[in-house]
User: Fold these one by one.
Assistant:
Number 1:
Amino acid sequence: MRSTSTVCIAWLLSFTLVMAVGQKDEVQAQIAHSSPPMTEFSGDAPLAIVGGTLIDLRDYGRSTEDIENSTILIRNGRIERTGEAKDILVPRGARIVDAKGAFVIPGLIDGFGSIRTQGFADAYLYEGVTTIYVQLSPSGEDGEQKIFRARPSPDVLRGAMIGGYSVDGTPSHDHPWTSRRLNEKRLSSEQLIQRIEQLASQGHRGLLIGLDVWPDQLDTIVREAHARGLVTLGEMAFTSYPYAIRAGVDSLIRSDRYQTSIDLAQDFLAYSDDPEGPGGAPGYRGVCMADLLSPSVAAFGHQLQASRTALMPILSIEANADDLNVPNPWAHRASGFVQESELDDPVGRKTGEHPYLKSHSPEKQKSLRECAFHREDLDGRFYALGAHFLAASGSPAFGIMPGAGLHGEMKLLQRIGLSPREALAAATNNYSNSFGWHDRGLIEKNRRADIVVLRSDPRKDIEATEDIETVILGGVVIPRNEMLDQRRKHSEVH
């Protein structure tokens, strides 16, 4: 057998040739490898994953029709057939991944992440994240303005913003926003449609609806986006969240935003007039004081249960900002792919200090943490009332690690009440249910061959998703150990 470094270089060269064609829904490979020890195969040969327990993640993780001794047949980057091993004949010459005693799940989807460096991409792949949705922000605003063109890389789906007054979603920088409400000219339906058509033609897959979008504008955006295959993510202030649910927004993002729906009317009005300034305080204060059993909480939860709108709370943001009993991100193995300077407001590598929390007085820190835990309880209440969830890491905000952050998010979803299977569905097939991404998120015929083989059972504890044996991206087995070894060697040299 050739040396590890030679194998890894050959794989990377092959993958680079493949990806240079463009990141479409299908990844073709010239060279692929089976699980360790790694062996080179012809790209024309099918791949078979044999003997593992195939985890069923349909119906938001409520279905339990697992296949204990399964075979998954892959050809040309797609799943060709799945079923019990006794019913599927593995073709002669097929590459074999022996999954006996292991557990097979779809590749993970991070619904709000970033690709800033090759290290980010490697960290995602190492942790089994095969799809990332990157929400792009207007120039000069917080968030991501660009995506690093990594090779190799998870499949990257791009999203853009749209606003009520600015087509690219640039918010007002006046406080409060009264001047914008009264004096600036709103975008017309024609302007909104033109923006959506442009984004769809450029290959964007989603729209983040800005804080200053009005109800009639939201109706136009949702209708026209869906007509062009774009998903809609809501983060509103001028429009209420109950209205957005009724209008058919696919997902409400960030719990600190959508939980304002349970505020008293006057608190939400204060929030909506200055959501990124002092006006946010009464809105957030109302949430922190909300009774979990109040009629407003129940009404919002029941509306979510009866709708197709999912919640994307990004629990990791507050958990890392406010130190909500989560591990130091630097303790995770994925941190080996990332430099401190590449993260936003990172937790102290050695001290474990949380910069945002530390910037406040001890009394304020206590109230921030109490409110943040209360927000988790609110999301737990929405879950109990029937809301559906999508997992997203928010990486690299507050030092959230690419790849590792999604595992942390699934743990937090389990902490608020989701079963391990439901938490796993939130990072896989729920994206099919809520976003219509039927080419991924589930292991079935004709979907992308993005697959993760686990040594431990994720049905018992979501932490098992970190016990990874094999990651397959578009039918190509990722050389995880070699990637991490190469990164360590690179760090030692530099």
Number 2:
Amino acid sequence: MQRVLMVILALGLIGLSAQAADKQMAEAFAASAAKLAADGKNEKAKDMCYKALANDEDCPEALFELGKMFEKENNLTAAADFLVRAAREFGKAEAAKPAFASKRLEAETRAKKLNPYSARFSGAMADYAADLNMITKKSTDAFTLEEACDRVDSLKLKAILPPDKAPKFERPTVAAAKPEKKTPEDEVSRFVSKLKKPEPVNSIGPDVERALKAGGWDKISGTWKKKSEGVYEVTDGKLETAKLNGAIQVIIQKGGTGSVHAFVRNSQEEYSGTYSSWGSGYGYVVEGSSAKMFTPSGGYSDRKFYSYMERDDPLPEANPKNMITVTVEEGKLEYFINGLKKKSANYQIEKKGPFMIKIDGTMTIETPQAKGQ
């Protein structure tokens, strides 16, 4: 038992080490971005910044560099957002890293120039937080604290304001019932059960399976309800086929409670942060009335390309359904929405599959197809 507990402790330390390694990697990417930006290589610098944020979404140096680059491009809204965020993160870390103080001041100064009302806005929020602090000192009952905390959360005051001006109170806690005594064996069992992933629910009728395999798909999972010929209501479903070149196509009905991923060369790890998203393949993620386009990015020091969310294409509000098509031939990618080409790209991307259509939540799709080899 002692040996098992030591393993659990080691796993926890590994998790902490991984977080520290991610932050170090982010700092390295941000430093490379600063050098590239100084040389006028803004696009490469942006890629490095987004890689930094993929490792640490609060990396102040990467946020700062992006803010300065967008400022040069006269994209003032984006610049102000990044600079304000950078100033906050520099402020949080300047006690441990005094050099961040001057960078915080520069970020704040740049942000104020871009938005003359930002100082007044910050001052108003600081005054409001001070009033809440005064109220909760006088009235310490749970009802008052709950309402004050709801207001803090709705305005995101703890994220907007520096620590010295942020709210000083916390949401009241309800005394927990005295826990029953647990043995070390119980704790280990609880820990192991958390590591186990729930078994996926599969419900695929024989006629549905035949139709999907005829459409070019080898692996099928999730819950598929046939609504009419070629039309399926899908819950947490996935289609895969071991193809490298060819095309995927799917028609997605408006509505639903989830999203549809349609990717070729689906072999990477997915990541979504505050300012950047990296996909598992190249193609689209459709959710609501938008189609997020994932295209190759990178190809610099490590010569590898990564799937990066380039932009968000709006889908026509009047359309009851929309057709997504993605083609790949060696390194050439083409993206289509409702038959209209939205982008063509040609890079030396890795030849790793499979083709994939994945449904998170519940969506209704029509005639999902995969062609090629």
Number 3:
Amino acid sequence: MSPARRTCALAALLLAACGAPHTRDIGALDERFAPRPWTVVSLGSAQDAGMPHLGCFAETCEQARATGTRAAVASLAIVGEEDWYLVDATPDLPEQVHRMGSLPSGVLLTHAHIGHYSGLMFLGKEGMHARGMPVWCSSAMADFLRGNAPWSQLVTLGNIDLRPFDDGRWEGECFPLASGLAVTALRVPHRDEFADTWAFSISHALSAELPRPVLYLPDIDRWEDWEMDIVEVAGRHAAVVVDATFWDDGELGGRDMSGIPHPRVRATMDLLQPLVDAGTCEVVFTHLNHTNPLWDPGSPEALELRRRGFRCTWPDGWRYALRDSARAR
């Protein structure tokens, strides 16, 4: 076991000895999201503004309104036997939390774009007035929340307890959430108007088999802008859940998309196809813009995606038991 993993394992044991943050039942548990020992569960598929999209009258959005079909904003749950953690606080946080049946033991934030942190408002004074909800985020994200109203009120009133993961204690290593669960934060290039952007590699902190982790990366500008090689990074993971904002160029009604970031789904598939063909990594797409043809499971694009061995969090969701990743080598 490496020194970094031993450090993380010891910290996880100490955290477990102190006890997990209190959670309170607030709704009936949806059996589709029933807890399993550290299972990663998708809670949404849409880009920040959801689906159907405000101001969109395209066929996909109109069909969604007509059928009452609504997709929550992309988010992730890391679920254990007794507690769970929420990755990104979306505008759909109340619905997503009620689907889980209890409050999370903590929240992790990837970045400061509105669909990824605005759900924190429901923890505030006008909402449930939470007490000390742990929020793991970068130092830049913590500074943004402390320095800008109304988010600063969440801090001053003690609704949230900010826990920067890049303050020197855990930078470059995993940081523990609970006994047997650890996260490594990876900096990724994205539009960082207010703070920086991170992906999360989620793994068992304590395991003799050292299972490979699951990567959650809902937003990035371009793979070629990243200092890391996505093929190499994906190859070290049992599963990766990645940015699928746009299927390909041309889906914005003739608008020039060359200057609009986000890797296109088809290009990502081309990069990761060898890993999928070899069965060494499960690749799952999420964070779909309302224009993405993958909203239609019967579209040629959705059929192509499945034919090539890839998956999408829409429409059936996605879950992965971290314990299974030890066998996915």
Number 4:
Amino acid sequence: MKRFGTRIGDVRQRVEIKRTTQYAAPEAPSARRPLPAALVFVLGFGALIAIGTVLLSLPLSAANGQGTPLIDALFTATSAVCVTGLVVVDTHSHWSGFGQAVILGLIQAGGFGFMTSSTLLLMVVVRGRTRLRDRVLVQESLGGGRAGAGELGDIRALIKRIAIFTIAIELAGAGILAASYASRSDQTVHPLWFGLFHSVSAFNNAGFDVLGGFRSLTGFSGDYLLLGTHGALIIIGGLGFAIVADVWRNRSWVRLALETKVVVATTVVLIIGGAVLIGAFEWNNAATFGSMPESERALNAVFKSVTARTAGFNSIDNAALLAPAALIVMALMFIGGASGSTAGGIKVNTFSVLLIAIISTALGKPSAEAFGRRIPHAVIYRALAVALLGVAFLFATILGLELLSDIPMLDVMFEAVSAFATVGLSRNVTPDLPDPALIVLIIAMFVGRLGPLTVVLALTARSRPVPYRHAVESMRIG
């Protein structure tokens, strides 16, 4: 009870002071930094090649049941995963049914894309639960952009659509090819296997065949349906899902994305221009077009122009091509198909961006413009990096083959470009190359398949806004 005349605070109270006990908290584990996207693709494709090499080395994979040398198995696995088509042993006679099935599986996995395939598998296993980082990687692998992968939230549905699109096109192509081949009297394999294998190989721009004798489609130079179906599969696979989907969705040139317009226009020009030039140089060459009727000459000129852009099938003997035509084919191989497709090369997108930049500069425009749109400078820088690095690596590949083999320079250049651009066309010298030269081609196929993609991913990861810009100083050009 409070006494009269006292104030609050006059009564002293003893307060016990409690000392705090200090505990040593364990250090928080350091967060593991995720692997760079480019490294994920490199490791993924490397693992797939390793698995394919082991499977192809088994006696079960060889037709004679005695196994395959490691270098041949490694070369074939790399060529299949990188959807190239260069071979050192005949696919029909050397490999058993199991070995051919392994090659077909490697082609499909390599063409569909390692990260896309692994993410699709993850969706099946865990019922659609994917990480944000997985979806980002898939978006990068598919090209991104308005005509590309779309929003991150749509990635899972997008992969399903790509899978349906791929299977539908391949099954349709397989049916047509099987029916066409079944009517022939010179069959070497079952029509159904021919149709399925060649449809998958053509759509994925691989170029493997099961006809035997290293002859590819040379025995079908007059078959319009068979060559036309192969060509259509190659073009669709070389454009990729994003471009085809944008065309199908909009069905109007005005409404198409800039990337779609550029890729489609450049593809048409390359196919027509390549066919005209190749036909002009080879029209009277008795070893190629000269012995054919004129209508078949035009057909094979168009098919050569189509297949040179990373498919690898051939209806004529590439070793018989004259030097000018061989150079045209090498140029088409180096350019390749569209970004985010099954094709290789530096990509039509890269070539088109640089061509647009050159034309815009020649016209005195301050920026690269096409179809009423301006292309960002960062995209031009990336395209320039991909193209110059591709030229530099191709030069190193040619130099390595020249030092390690004794084949003519034109053949060296042709095989090097074919390997780097993951085409598979050959002047019939790859099976005779020594093992060190084969290793050079293996590296070229691996770098050629992943090089442009990893460069873009690395540059994309490094790009970030800066709070300042350096002063401008000009330099002399020319």
